[in-house]
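Try it yourself: sequence plus beta-D-glucopyranose, in.
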Amino acid sequence: MDLNAIGLGDKVRLTLGSDMWHTAAVESAGIEQVALSDGPHGLRKAAPDDFFSSEPATCFPTASALACSWDPGLAMAIGVALGEEARAQDVAVVLGPGINVKRHPLCGRNFEYFSEDPHLAGRLAAAMVEGIQSQHVGACVKHFAANNQETDRMRVSADVDERTLREIYLPAFETAVTRARPWTVMCAYNKLNGVYAAQHRWLLTELLRREWGFDGMVVSDWGAVHDRVAALEAGLDLEMPPNFGISDTAVLAAIEKGELSEKVLEAAVANVIRLVERARGRQPGTLDADGHHALARRAAAASMVLLKNSGPVLPLVDGPGLKVAVTGEFATEPRFQGGGSSRVNATEVDIPLDELRTALPSARFVDDPAEADVIVAFVGLEEGQDTEGKDRDTMDLPAGQVAELRRLAGTGRPVVAVVCAGSVVSTAAWDDAASAIVMCGLAGQGSGGALAEVLTGAANPSGKLAETIPLRLEDCPAYLNFPGEEGHVRYGEGVFVGYRGYDAVGTQVAYPFGHGLSYTTFSYDDLQVSGREISCTVTNTGDREGAEVVQLYVGDPHARVARPPRELKGFSKVSLAPGASRRVTFTLTDRDLSYWSVAFGGWLLEPGEFRIEIGASSRDIRLATTIHIEGEPPRLPLTLMSTLSEWLDDPVGRERLRAVTGNDYEFLNEFLGSSPISVLPAFSMLGITPDMLKALL
Ligand code: BGC
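Structure, out:
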């Protein structure tokens, strides 16, 4: 489109929303408005100026639950369904998925995010984006970047070093952007290293557009822009929602005064118009409420995690002799989603107790806990604990629920604890009171039916934890640096987030990352390495069909920098009939083995030995081997600020030192090895002169 056909005022208007949920139209130029709606696990199409009520839509499992499926195919299917619902409601962009890496168990919005691991989060996010966009509807990955807490979320500066950003907090965005090409990216509320994400040029332009090749539109989080002129300069395209036009006036004034180039504004306008053009041609649709409810239920069943199963007490087998007691308010008033902008007006909601009665038609449901053969106890976080805008203040279950679990265990009947929560809850205080624990999560409107299927074995549990359950909150690597103070939160644990940190110091955990049981068992054999290809055979050794998530971890114990003992670099969910086997193959890239080197300013693959592990969880490694990467060790360019040791470690450097000074000064290495070579002339007795230093270079 010829931007000259659009007047300055209209260009400015195009880069600000026209109401809470629409971009502006410029009819004279044939530019129609585009509708954006939340996201991320169901459509929340609100009235134009209403934040709180919305049209009925399917509530799928929240990201924290769905991530436990470790199933990109499922994430894609949900993406397709979200796209279809968007078409049915005339929405052009779904504001999701949310893909921030979980840094700390208490972040109030953890339920909207996938995982503590960037590889898992990135693959699920890319699949969901592909699914949404297959329907000619745009996705919006959010919140870019380092939005890992709700406390002070609109002001706090996340202070994160570059290696940690590159290895932990950015890769999920990078994967989603480079593989799935989302139409939009939403910037975060917070500052990153002192600069608002909405005004962060390195983030929005140098990294997102130049390095990753993003060609879509950057939209602000709602209310995240503090200075729209600075935001436009940084690479933000659309401010949402409108602010009585105040920022339009500021942009016009800046252009008139020559403080902002019209070219900068036009770049943003072009990105908004590209979105308008992409959104054209979307076919209207109808809401397949029943079909999507069935998908929500299937997804919930695939996402539930069986943490323990002593006895085994599960699955429950129907029969006239079976007496079941069900306790806890969530059995009849299910918790299946969190609070805030993601809250969906669900089309229908399965009631767990009703579903359990249907799934166990011959069993007798008793009220007296002492009379039952088994007690199914629903526990979890209260409404308002998993919510946008507020972090949780404890990782524990409410004290009353813990006391109730203990009382139930006192009856001597096996207790099956069903945990409904959108993020980690501690199990340490009551684990021994439960024979079985099912992590139900906030698994959407079909979670009641899915739970009945899982408890009775109609669905064999196949979920695996996407975040570690620590024994104590204090064990969490980010514990001492959360949620920060005086406007700053320091990501002091660096790359040691989640299992990377627990494993690095050998902390005992309640349930590790990647853990989840099945009603069948799997064996792992025949690990083979061929170049960068790693393969093994997985066999269903039990007597019922089931699915296993095979996890590939990589470790680099001899790196120049401290690296986590293991990092997830591949996974595959395989469904197997009893007795069946499948060969699973992974291919490692250079990047999978590299770390971000600040000294080298890029990804660095060091030659040497790497540890390869195949596990059923991060703490249940079934097969392990090493691979050797050939090559010359990387060499930093030598400067006068390089230390004597660094000069001596480099064969060319050592030779040069000897040639220029007549000595290699090996004898000084122990005492002065850590000194930059520039300070050595200060010790005149060494005979190194400033001229020699110049000659060295
Ligand atoms: C949230 C976003 C959401 C937006 C629009 C903000 O408060 O942070 O995730 O998309 O509101 O509802």
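One thing you can check immediately is this: Residues 38-39, 95, 142, 221-222, 341 surround beta-D-glucopyranose (CB under 6 Å).
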